[in-house]
Design brief:
By secondary structure, the protein is α/β, with parallel strands linked by helices. It has one domain: Rossmann fold. The chain is 30% helix and 16% strand. The protein contains eight helices and ten strands. The protein has a seven-stranded parallel sheet with strand order 1-10-9-6-2-3-5, with helices on one face. Strands 4-8-7 form a three-stranded antiparallel sheet. α1 packs across α2. The chain starts with a strand and ends in a 7-residue tail after the last helix. The structure holds 2-amino-2-deoxy-6-O-phosphono-alpha-D-glucopyranose.
Length: 261
């Protein structure tokens, strides 16, 4: 695993965007796995800037998002489809038909999940997967205890996740209690994985994921078994790590993975 510790969330966002931009330039029809949440917003802004100012071309890029709230349609302002349109897709030259987010309103959610898995396979698998992390170590909506080999499915959200995500909704009662989510097994099949985290509220989860034992109780720790994973974190999120990790010399250097453990 590579660990890149950035001085703040701006540097984290630039470093992660550089990694994605480099991969897109190398493979224009790349399959990206994308994430939602507060953490990737500035990284997406940087990718938008690169598209506008540095000719970063998304015209052939294909995307699959990690998850979606069950019961929310794509035009609900708290749905992850809406989030992706607002924070990335509407501002870059991507073909919307190439962007995929699970349908939270699917008549048959189990069939929706199965079809999503098949579509990812048909696209050749995910080349690079972006992840955030929940305060309890969850990735996508794989809550603690989710099996390592789990696939895209309907999941129950924990009380902690509902409370953490309530800040985006009018009230905690409006937060859906279930979601559709890629499984840990689906995520671990991506060829490359980049997990980003900022803020002290993620410090425990980051320390357990990187330096603790690999356990289904901390889903992000399962990434330890993957051959090509980079954690890009800011110093607050890194504050409970015991080992020392170097800072990137410059955001650009981060794309080469300048510091490893
Ligand atoms: C949600 C998403 C996760 C995301 C997490 C952290 O639970 N399903 O994919 O990583 O929130 O979000 P934030 O970046 O807002 O802390």
């Amino acid at each position: 695993m590579k660990v890149i510790v950035c001085k703040d969330s701006d540097e984290m966002s630039r470093a992660a965007a550089q990694i994605f931009a480099q991969r897109i330039r190398k493979k224009p029809n790349i399959v990206l796995g994308l994430a939602t949440g507060g953490t990737p917003v500035k990284m997406y802004k940087e990718l938008i800037r690169m598209c506008k100012e540095e000719n970063l071309d998304f015209s052939k890029v294909i995307t699959y998002n990690l998850d979606e709230y069950l019961g929310l349609s794509g035009d609900h302002d708290q749905s992850y489809r809406y989030f992706m349109n607002e924070n990335l897709f509407n501002h870059i030259n991507i073909n919307k038909a190439n962007t995929h987010v699970l349908n939270g309103k699917a008549k048959d959610p189990a069939a929706e999940c199965k079809a999503y898995e098949e579509a990812i396979k048909k696209a050749g698998g995910i080349d690079i997967q972006l992840l955030g992390i929940g305060g309890n170590g969850h990735i996508a909506f794989n809550e603690p205890g989710s099996p390592k080999n789990s696939r895209t499915r309907i999941v129950d959200l924990t009380e902690k996740t509902i409370q953490d995500n309530a800040r985006f909704f009018a009230s905690v009662n409006d937060v859906p209690k279930q979601a559709l989510s890629m499984g840990n097994g689906t995520i671990l099949e991506a060829k490359e994985i980049v997990l980003i985290a900022d803020k002290a509220s993620k410090a425990d989860a980051i320390a357990k994921s990187i330096e603790g034992p690999a356990t289904e109780q901390v889903p992000a720790s399962l990434l330890q078994s993957h051959k090509n994973v980079t954690f890009v974190v800011d110093k607050d999120a890194a504050s409970k790590l015991k080992k020392k990790y170097e800072a990137p010399k410059a955001a650009k250097a981060a794309s080469k993975g300048c510091c490893c453990c």
